[in-house]
Fold each of these.
Amino acid sequence: MNSALLVEQRPVRRRLLISGIVQGVGFRPFVFRLATRLSLGGVVRNTPAGVVVEAEGTVAQLQRLQEEIVSSHPPAARIERVTVEELSPLGENSFAIELSGVSGEVLAGVSPDLAVCRECVNELFDPANRRYLYPFINCTNCGPRFSIVHKIPYDRKNTSMKVFTMCLECRREFHDPYDRRFHAQPNGCPECGPQLWLADSSGRRIAEAGEAVRQACERLARGGIVAVRGIGGFHLAVDAFNDQAVQELRRRKRRSAKPLAVMVGDLEVARRMCRLSLAEEALLEDPASPIVLALAKPDSRLSREIAPGQERIGLMLPYTPFHHLLFAQGLEALVMTSGNVAGEPICTANQEALSRLAGIADCFLLHDREIVTRTDDSVVFHAAGRVRTIRRSRGMAPRPLAVRYDGPQVLGVGAELKNTVCLLAGPQAVVSQHLGDLKNLHAYRFFEETIDHLLRLYQGTPEWVARDLHPDYLSSRWAENSGLPVIAVQHHHAHLAAVLAEHGEQGPAIGVILDGAGLGTDNTVWGGEILVGDLNGFTRAGHIEPMPLPGGDKAVAEPWRTAVGYLACACGQGFPELPWMREYQVDEVAELVRTKTATVSTSSCGRLFDAVAAILGRALAAEYEAQGPMELEALAAAGPLAPFSWALEEQGDTVILLVRPLIREVVEAAVSGMDPEVLSARFHRTVVEMFAEAAEQVAARTGIQRVILAGGVFANQLVLEGMCRKLTRAGFEVLLPSLFPAGDGAISLGQAVVARNLVVSGRGKGG
Ligand SMILES: [Zn+2]
Ligand SMILES: [Zn+2]
Ligand SMILES: [Zn+2]
């Protein structure tokens, strides 16, 4: 035997630290089975930094272990890094799973909820399986997580599964490291686990289990509205092909225009409904199972009432076993919209749903697994090569973001619309699920509960609270009453910082922040901004010229007022008359602008979109946020079209983007009967070119070649891709948000990282 071979066979011991999403996703039993198969000795355990594997065997065996960990890990896991350390062999030849202590799990936190996996779906429809048609089947790779946890560690006794005592067979699976259900905390079966039933609108049980599903489907097929209790809350379901049913749902929910999400039985049906890229298909099948915005096919048979005025619809696949059971009854596509009263958070408890959704749903598909934490469906789309998040909730929250720098614990409390909160503790930021508009009382309570829950789950003890500069936001008031020192962070600076944090960068960068509204340091409303900044501070390097917003917030809700304000400002009092104007008090509003009465000034980009949409007669009174801009985007014709006029003006070190020429040309085009699709496309092109050119001017002055795009306007795919393409071609490094929203859902994250930096650099001021 030659000496090389001897070296090969000598036992070695290595420690692998695997970081990423590796906890609560079946990683330890996977490593156990793999190591045992490879005849290795050692141990696997969870630590705050990730999963640690200590393995002992030959070099070749250990090499195999490493390779297979990377190539065949559980589907819901995401490996970010594997670091290897050589140890002295201990002579171990058996492998063990070390059960976690309390402290080790703290930072690891809780996995997001995971869509039911393929193996479980196969068992669900296997008549020989003991869980045949059992609506709550799950395993180590799938099932509810975040939505059922009261506190850590993530053990059954700390979840809403506590009340279900496992039967002998379930217990055997739970304790067997070779079983797919080893330590699957929500494990259960028809004998011992949660149950499903159908209730009528008075709450009376009318059918159980399989019969409940069958009757619910019958109602749906007849055009009925069924409230379905899911993972993170209730849905309201109707047949997505039935115009009348969808109309009736809209009438009862008092929602005439807001797009509704659609769940389809499988990917095949999804392909018939929408034109899907491979990337979009992958998003649909992701364990997070989000709503994916995709282009609807004209011949899809989906009711036109689902997303009026939109080209894209929100599509998702079944993500719980009982969703699969519904579709197994022959339904193809269901509208699955949030089970809430407009503006309120979604219902989670049976009684709550029965009372609050009483006038909306005909019957209720209920179950007895309590929802501890409310999570809406997440909403994403695919653009500029990556996933883009609009709403980050079920399946995504509370996945932590690793941050590279350490400092004091900070709680970011976000803005006011589309609020989230963020706990920045040690090397990670945990951003909550989407909480909604805090001005709604129920949403505000949800905000308070979420702060408590997050601090309990992560044993957080924040030393600072970061809030928006706007003192009247309810989140800001909460911060001021928290008893902790407070740091106020400017809204658009927080947008910039959130993207830096997501990319693990500190800055500086040029931030093109296109947004609805945020209070500026000069006490005016900002929102079409070019900032130069880092995690510590910023300067305002450019912005849209101040435009009048007659009536302030009233104009946000009724964009026709914004349009009149912009027209009065751009064209003077004698602005052209548009067909819709006869029905509104246009003269009164123009007078407010002329006399500067009850009129605030704004550089908002969102309002510019509102104004142009309203000039075209779209969303004159908006039913939902960004309705006008969304309809305007859907309208835009494809192909290269010339931009309208705009101008840049240097005022000292600031670039002013003059939009009055643009408004004048838009209204002239509208009056002269330009095709609205062409008009919209040219408007989008103008916004892109105007901001790209302004960013280039700022870059020329500062020498900074990195541009960040953020703010709610980047939910607009045309603006996002147009800007990204233009700036990349001009040689910039462009950073975009991906797993966190471009809009206000990321404000809490930005606030927290800025505040921590200010504290660490000694610039934070207690307030
Ligand atoms: Zn499973
Ligand atoms: Zn059981
Ligand atoms: Zn914002």
Amino acid sequence: MRVAVVGGTGRMGAALAWQLSKKNEVIIGSRDPARAEVAAARLEGVRGLGNLDAVKAAETVVVTLPFDALGSASDLRDAAKGMLVVSAVNPIVLRGGLLVYGKETGSAAEDLALALPGSRVVTGFNNIPVRMLQGELKGRLDVLVAAESKKSYEEAARLMRTVAGLNPLYAGPLSEAGTVERITPLVLNLARLNGTGALAPRFVSRAEVGPGA
Ligand SMILES: NC(=O)c1ccc[n+]([C@@H]2O[C@H](COP(=O)([O-])OP(=O)(O)OC[C@H]3O[C@@H](n4cnc5c(N)ncnc54)[C@H](OP(=O)(O)O)[C@@H]3O)[C@@H](O)[C@H]2O)c1
């Protein structure tokens, strides 16, 4: 697939660009094309362009913008029409010493879907700490995908499976995106409060842990 990473010069964007570039053609997007070129030059076979040109050159989009910057996504509206757009965006704020979900209602992915009418926005990669993506994955990591249709989920899952170790799971329609995004502050707090180092959610089946068959 030809994948544009919007906000791809950031920590999460660059890590995903690297992981995805092993099996896909990746274009890093930035507000500043020169910054995108610098980030892309660190990765083999990756190009860097302005965010809009990156989307124009792609078939699929991954968005790794800060939540506060989502308003700028409406500039991509025409270019992203009909495309699968994977949102890794989490609204998180620090309150009373804890990280908490930063929206009263809805979700970042639903906000993005409103900014990009005609695109197929799904969640993806939200709960995976960037540090786990900066090297080869040694084990399985689940990727929760809220998607308006099963077809969009399956398209996102095909992209995610191009990264060895990633295991996409369908989380239901886009109205479930807030549930998916809320897991991120939870795992960040769990890691800090329990001194475990970075954590990511991994779901186990009864077949794995029993009891019985
Ligand atoms: N870090 C993680 O572990 C992690 C894990 C899962 C999900 N996420 C999510 O991924 C997103 C990015 O996180 P990050 O840690 O990669 O952040 P980051 O390092 O700050 O990168 C975000 C990128 O977005 C662009 N940007 C910043 N402000 C902008 C604005 N006002 N308008 C347009 N573009 C802007 C910047 O690129 P240019 O300046 O080049 O345009 C920047 O490189 C967040 O929503 C976060 O919740 C992060």
